[in-house]
Amino acid sequence: MTVTMARRKELSVDLREKIVQLYDDGNGYKKISKMLHVPISTIRSIIKKKMETGTVENVGLRGRKRKLDEKLRRRVIRDVAKNPMTTVKNLQQSIKDAGTDVSLQTIRRTLHDNGYKARRPRKTPLLTTRHRNNRLDFAKTNLFNNTIWTSVLWSDETKIELFGHNDARYVWRQDGNAYITPNAQ
Questions:
Q1: Helix, coil or strand: residue 171
Q2: Does 106 have pLDDT greater than 90?
């Protein structure tokens, strides 16, 4: 069974150049390894890199650069932490105002990478016995007070929203934060 060790830290450019210089002077992998206390496989890969690329310095990363740099990623997370009910479109507009145009999926991916998920907000807890008793006491004391009840608009309890959306809303939250006040409805 082979066990591969994860790379712990990167060697400095000076040390890598020293390894190549010792190799050019005729020293072998084992001797260089004992002199500098660097694994043989690391020495082999440094020398191979020098032969292939002509340098021991790190070459730039491959692939496309990220559209959201670290500063904008922190901004997205901060905005969601302040207002969990914000939408991805609002976040997109906020980033666009900062000068970067990104897709909605990029923002969602950033939130998911930081542990946020879109969830339905928790319903407010049911009334306790104390709450019910207080409501009953209020109703009994104001039962025959006509001045209060003439100003009340009675309805069939149909939910009507004059302003805003009447559809499902979501909250961006991390696991375990379901009952924190901004995450509940």
A1: strand
A2: yes
